[in-house]
Amino acid sequence: MTDLLAARAQMAMSLAFHIIFAVIGIAMPLLMVIAEGLWLKTREEVYLTLAKRWAKGTAIMFAVGAVSGTVLSFELGLLWPNFMAYAGPIIGMPFSLEGFAFFLEAIFLGLYLYGWDRIPKYAHWFAGVMVLLGGTLSGIFVVTANAWMNTPTGFSIVNGVVTDVDPIAAMLNPSSFSQTLHMTIAAFLTVGFAVAGIHAYFLRRDPDNLFHRRAFAIALSVGGVFALLQPISGDISAKKLAKHQPIKLAAMEAQWETERGAPLRIGGIPNEDTEETRYALEIPKALSFLAYSDFNAEVMGLKAVPPEDRPPVAIVHFAFQIMVACGIVLIAAGVIGGWLAWKHKRLPDQRWYLRFVTFCTPLGFIAIEAGWTVTEVGRQPWIIYNYMRTAEAVTSMPNLVVPFLGFTVLYIFLSIIVVILLRRQIFLS
After folding, report:
1. How many angstroms separate the Cα of 210 from the Cα of each of 44, 48, 147, 217, 342?
2. What is the CA 227 to chain-centroid distance, rounded?
3. What would the pLDDT profile of 260-284 be if each residue is shown by its tens digit?
4. Chain mean position to CA 114
5. Domains in the chain, number
6. How far is 45 from 128, CA to CA, in rounded Å?
7. What is the DSSP string of 296-336?
8. What pTM was computed for the model?
9. The domain containing residue 265 runs over which residues?
10. Beta strand 298-299 pairing with 276-283
11. CA–CA separation, 182 vs 252, rounded Å?
12. If 187 and its partner were Cys, which of 26, 179, 220, 407 is the partner (CB 3.0–4.6 Å)?
């Protein structure tokens, strides 16, 4: 395994592990805040129990997320020193602000966990709101740094040296809004359906259990609402890609030729040797419309750049297809659930629907992992788009296979611990 491949594999594994806990840290506080708010309004004890159980889950995920996030911060410096030397002065601000948001979340999470019956009820609920705000801002600040890697702005290059750094312009780069919007909505959508799926499973075993009925209603409502919002953010992201990263868009759609009225492909197997995509279902002119709001707009194809400047097309295309497929299923689950609730004027607790939602439990996380694969692999061979190649940023430290295996064992161990803690503290408490 080459140093570059080992470094990329270790970073990918760490990010894939951490993103699960980051997403839960963003979205889980919303569920506990809603549950406590309903308790304050109705005084139904079941909502208080829900808020306390979900708060325990939030704390567990927060702790593991803090560990994996710390590992990632060290890996940035150790595995990619040339990148940090180049980009550090430019994107240091969002990382600093992320640290502030992290501590904000940690402080108010402590108040929330230990403030029951110790501070006024509405002050306690407000602490939960601040946990939600801190977690959301933390995710937004990190994603703005990643967005800068896709559309770098806020600096000049003079004689090969970075000058005239404007950290605000770097944060507010052209991809910031679309990426942060898409990721934040994805977090709430994913956690909403994951929690709904867990409680749907228990409802199938005990249909009259009030705890699971209330939990299912709250989580499904959150997941359903954000599932309907996600296509809007996806459309915004597609248009930004078409303007700023057309080769990434071409890889996502396995679009080889530059053409007007480009089709949207569903499925298909791209062949990088023959430069063609077979077995795809093509919707005529749909890609041109989605990218430029014009059925006859010209879409750049992969052949417009040399092979060495193209991302791994098959990986990007398949990951994008997986993300979209999972998203469509979750949207369908939200729409069907809303229709059933409206039609029958009650919780959609039909057994077939509960089984469907249970099936949806992991789909949001799968979509997020696939989406980050599209974002990161689709930018290759660049770590900073059009400025620094990934091969130029990697460390020269040898024997990266050993830490890769070590961290793999660590993450497996942490995953087992999380499962045990969640089972004991939430489902058996």
Report:
1. 11, 13, 43, 11, 20
2. 14
3. 988 989 988 998 888 888 888 889 9
4. 30
5. 1
6. 18
7. T-EE--GGGS-GGGS--HHHHHHHHHHHHHHHHHHHHHHHH
8. 0.90
9. 3-427
10. unpaired
11. 16
12. 26
